[in-house]
Amino acid sequence: MKVVAKKIEMIAYFKKDGKITPIKFRIEEEDKCQVIKIGKIISTDLEKLCGNKMWVFTCSAVVDGVEKIFELKYDFEGCRWVLFKI
């Protein structure tokens, strides 16, 4: 996987117990905008870097007819989503 570290717009489901389930996200590249629906969440981990907590989701989705695996991160402090690796 290649590190891209791009901020993205995300639609996610937040349960009462705090569990987050990402559903789909939009990524903008140059003049193109693409919506990617998450097909499967492979793993979920909690990462701590310099006191900052992030949920790390390894997911898969079919993009242009090809299954791709990617890593999404949710930053607790900044309340933002990042497409970290693809």
Residues in β-strands, percent: over 45%
The total count of strands amounts to 7
Instruction: Please give the oligomerization state of what you see.
Output: single chain
The ordered string of helix (H) and strand (E) elements is EEEEEEE
Structural class from helices and strands?
mainly beta
Number of helices: 0
Q: pLDDT below 50 for ≥5 consecutive residues: which ranges?
A: none
Write a concise keyword list for the protein shown above.
about 90 residues, mainly beta, 7-stranded antiparallel sheet, globular
Walkthrough of the structure:
Strands 3-2-1-7-6-5-4 form a seven-stranded antiparallel sheet, with no helix packed on it. The protein has one domain (3-85). The protein is mostly beta strands. The model has no long low-confidence stretch (mean pLDDT 92). The protein has strands at 3-14, 20-29, 32-37, 40-49, 52-63, 66-75, 80-85. The chain is globular and about 35 Å long.
